[in-house]
Amino acid sequence: MARILTSKEAKLSVKMLAEITDSLRHEILGKWRIDDEWIESYKMSLGGIDVVSIDVFDTAITRLVETPVDVFALVELVLVEKYGTRFCGFAAFREQAERGARIKARDLGQDEVTLSKVLAELALLFPVSKKYSEEIAKIEVECEAQLTIPVPEILAAVRIAEAAACKVVFVSDMYLPHEAVRHLLGICGYSDALPLLVSSETQCTKSSGAQWTVLRQHVEAWSRILHIGDNPHSDRDSPAACGIKPHPFTRVCSYPRSGGPLTPDILPFSLQARSTQLGRTTLSLRTDAALMSALGRSWGAVVVGGYTKWIARRAEELGLRHLFFCARDGWLPHATWECADFGKRTGITTSYLYVSRRSLNLGAAAVTSSAAQLGQNALDVLADRCAGYTVRHVIERSGLSGISPLMEEAHQIFGSHEHVLVSDDVWNLKALFQRNSGDVYQILRGDLDNAVQYLKQEGLHEGAVGLVDVGWNGTLQSSIARILRHAGCQVRIFGFYCGLWNDAQKNRPSAGWMEGAFGSDFIHDPEQYAVRNAVDLLENLFAAPEGTTTGYRSEHGRMVACVAGDGTEQDTHQRLIAPFQKATLEVLERVYGQGRCEALTPEMIEVAPAMAALARLSLSPGRGEMEILGSILHCSDFSHAVHVPILEELWVENLEEAEWDMKYRSWPLASALALLSRLSGETRAKFLHTAREQFAHVDSRTLGQLQ
User: Which domain of life is it from (predicted)?
Assistant: First the structure.
C-alpha cells in the first residue's frame, strides 16, 4: 500500500522546478500554433516600412510564470536552498524594493531604474541581502533565463522583416542590464547582430516617449517605423503619438496580479496557469466555459488537489478507515479522491453523504426541544439569516407552512406573509415559533427521526470516521453528533474542512475533532482574509450538480435523500461549474496516473501551494474572472431558494447609492475592486478612503491595489 508523502518530503526544490520548466518549454513550443491571421496582417503593415522595432518581454520572449514578479519567487527558492532560511520573504521585499527605487527615480526626474539601484534599495529593506548583491543579481538573471521562452510569431516576424529589407531593432523598458536582456534574446534564437535598446542603459522609456527619440537616433532620420508590442500605452499609444505605426501583439500578455502572496509556494499555480494559457491551441475568442476550464486546469487542480491530499494525509495519521464526503460541497474533493486513487494508496474507504443544513440542523433542533418549549438552538436555526426574506419564505423553508395557527398569527404580527423581515423582526419571529411550539416540535421531531435512520444506515455511528466538507462553523458535524447521541450511539467523528471561523469553537464540545486545511477557528477571523474572500467560490466550485438535500424518505426499506433540483442552480452548474470541475479532474487524473500534467507533479500538489493559489485568485482577481465568477448565483440561506450573484457590485446601477460596507459582501475584495473600476472623481476618492479603512487588516501588497 502506497503512503501519502509527508509535507516535508514533498517540498519544492530548485532541481524539481528546473526539470519542469525545461519540459514545459519543449511541450509548449512543440504544440504552438502560429497565429496566421496576425502574421498576414503584419505582412500587410510592412508596406513602406523601413524599420521594425520590437518590444522584448511578453512580445519577442515571454516567461513561464503567470505574473512577471513570480520570477522573484523562484529567486527566493534558490537563495533559501543555497543560504538558508535567512532569505525567507525575499520575493516580497524584492518587489517592494523595485517600487521604492522607482519612486526615488521619479523624484529625481529619471525615467528608469537599474538592477543595481533596485538591489541598493533592497539592502535597506532586507539588510541580509546587502553582502549578497552580486550573487542575487546573477541568480535573478539565471532565473529569468530558466523561465524564458521565445514567441514563434515574433521569430517569424523578424525573418519576414529581414526578407523585406527592413531593419529590426529590439526596444525594451527594463531594469535588467543590456547584456542580460541580450542574453535572454540569444537563448531564444534571436541574432546578437540585431540592435537592442534597453531603458536601463538609455535611461529613456517607451512609456514616457523618450525612447522613441533614442530609436530614431539609431536609424536614418527619415525611417518609417513599425512597432510591435503588447502594452496598450507603451507599445500602442506612445509610439503612435511619436509618429511610429503600432502593430499590437497581445497573444502572450502575462497577468500582473498585484495582490496575494509572493512566495515560492505560488510557483506551482503560476507555472500551471501560464502553461495552460500558452499551451492552448485555439486562438479564437474564448467563451466563459473555456475560461472556466482554464481556471480548473490551474487553480482548481492546485487548490482541490492540495486540499484532498491534505485530507488523505491527516486521515492516515489519525488512523481512520472511512471518510464521508458531504453533499454538495464535498463532491469535487470526493471525485478528486477517486481519480487520484487515494483509496488504494491509503486503504481508506469513502462514501458520499447526502446532508445539508436543512436536512440535519432542523432535526438536531428537536434534540434540545419539546412540545412544551423549543430550545434556544431550535429558535436560532428556525430564524437563521431571516433578514431580507419574506415571512412566508422563512416559514416554508423549515416545512412549517402547513401549521394553520402559526400562519394566521404570522399574518397578524407582520401584517402580511409577504412582509420582508429585518433584523429587528427576529425576536418577534422567534416568539411566534415558541408560541406554536407543540406543532413546530412535531415537524422537527419527524426531521430528527428520519435523520437518525439515514445516518445510522450510512454507518456514521460505527467507530472513528472522517467527515469532509468545505466549512465554516462545524454546524453540520455538531448536528450529526447530537442526532446520533440522542439515538444512543457512540460518536467519534473527525471533521476535515477548508477552513473554520471563530464561531466554530462553540460547536466543538458537541461536534468533536475539527480542523481546517487553509484556516482555523483559533486564528482571529480578520487574519484569515484570503479564505474569507474565497468562501462562496469554494462552496460553488466544489459543489455537486444535484440540488440541495431537503430531507429523507423511506423507499424499498432504505432511507433515501430528498433532493430539490433548482433550474437556476443547474443552469449555472452546466454553463460554468461543470467545465471547471471536468478540467480540474482531467489534470489531477494525469498528475496521479502519469506522474505529471504540464507544470504539476504529485509532489507539487500540497496545502501550501494550494493556499497560495487560493489567495491569489480571491485577493487579486482579473476583470474577466470577476465578471464570470461573480455572475455565479449563490444562496446563503439553507432553503437554496433565493439566489444572488456572488459579485453583486458589478450589476449596481446607481453608484451613488451603492452599499460601501464591504464587510458583508460575498467577495469583499473583488467587490471593492469592481466598484473602484467604475468610479471616478470625488466619488472614487471617497470610496478609496472608505475601502482602505475597511481593508486595513490585509497585507500591504494586496492593499496596494486600492489606489
Answer: Bacteria
